[in-house]
Design brief:
By secondary structure, this protein is mainly α. The protein is built from four helices and no strands. The protein has one domain. 10% of the residues are buried.
């Protein structure tokens, strides 16, 4: 695998994580307490579609090579984790902890 191909798979994994989280956030924003039946259907349906999406991306990467699939999977997990930490405010907390421990 060349460096260019590796960068393409890193991009695919990152984009997959971003799209996964954006669609998840959209689904959560659509939940309405007065429409519990529709909200449950939206969450279950959205979850199913996200899993089909990630399976399809990993399947395409695996059909190219096992290394591509591993790159996409690890990149997906790491980028998703970083986005979750950022949105949850944990990156700012960790930055302040490490900044205080140095002084």
């Amino acid at each position: 695998m060349t460096a260019v191909q590796m960068m393409i798979w890193l991009f695919v994994g990152s984009l997959t994580a971003l799209l996964f989280l954006l669609t998840q956030q959209w689904s959560v924003n659509q939940i309405h307490p007065e429409k519990s039946r529709g909200s449950i259907g939206l969450i279950v349906g959205g979850t199913f579609l996200r899993w089909v999406f990630i399976f399809s991306v990993l399947f395409v990467a695996q059909s190219y090579s096992s290394a591509a699939m591993v790159i996409v999977f690890i990149t997906f997990l790491l980028v998703r984790l970083l986005f979750l930490l950022k949105w949850g405010g944990w990156l700012q907390i960790l930055k302040s902890i490490f900044h205080h421990s140095e002084g």
